[in-house]
Specification:
single chain, alpha+beta, about 25% strand
């Protein structure tokens, strides 16, 4: 499908987020906040994910979202129409490509009504359900559009900020998982007041979500 058609799907999916009209998002507790980043503890949650093998973050997000859009529009075994949520979360699978990626995982947060038992996607969509345990995440916000040209810079800025903080040695990395994720909250047709985030998992010395005070004791 052409880029404009996929953008239309993306715009429809997040249309209400432009106006803030009741879009569900994953729930979290704010652990720490400062000017350059936050530490959040996200609750257990269910997501539907699409693995995309491409070197481009933008193309992968559009392609993965197209499959997820079909799923929420009824391409599931229940023929259920599933409400839109935000953000669209694209996780970078570490690799040696131009964006340090070997692929991308595009995720849709399953709304509360379907959290316990998400409808099964049609097999041809090649989607996977993911059950997240409680997750501690370092978050950096940035405006404008998330592009191939700026996501690495934003992730590096978060890494720099964390490197000067008590969380310097708390980020997680696994070659079989993602290095960081980009969360997008707005339609591509919103040009001002956009919200994006970089997410990186963090973990305390004894597991769980670390606070600054708990890290200072180690």
């Amino acid at each position: 499908m052409g880029r404009n058609f996929l953008c239309l799907f993306f715009a429809t999916f997040l249309a209400f987020s432009v106006h803030g009209l009741g879009i569900e998002s994953p729930q979290f507790t704010l652990i720490h906040s400062e000017s350059e980043f936050e530490i959040r503890l996200y609750r257990e949650s269910s997501w539907m994910s699409a693995l995309v093998q491409d070197i481009s973050f933008e193309k992968s997000t559009r392609g993965g979202f197209h499959r997820l859009f079909q799923y929420i529009q009824g391409a599931n075994l229940n023929f259920s129409r599933i409400p839109m949520t935000a953000p669209v979360l694209t996780s970078i699978v570490p690799g040696s490509g131009p964006l340090y990626s070997s692929g991308y995982i595009v995720r849709f947060y399953v709304p509360t009504k379907f959290q316990e038992t998400p409808p099964l996607p049609l097999p041809e969509l090649d989607l996977q359900e993911e059950k997240w345990e409680g997750r501690c995440v370092a978050v950096r916000k940035f405006s404008g559009f998330a592009r191939d040209s700026n996501i690495v810079k934003e992730a590096q800025s978060l890494a720099t900020s964390l490197g000067r903080s008590p969380w310097a040695n708390s980020t997680t990395f696994d070659e079989d998982k993602y290095a960081y994720s980009i969360a997008q909250y707005n339609s591509p047709f919103r040009f001002i007041g956009r919200t994006n985030e970089v997410w990186v998992d963090v973990v305390g010395p004894q597991g769980g979500c670390p606070t600054a005070s708990s890290l200072s004791s180690y």
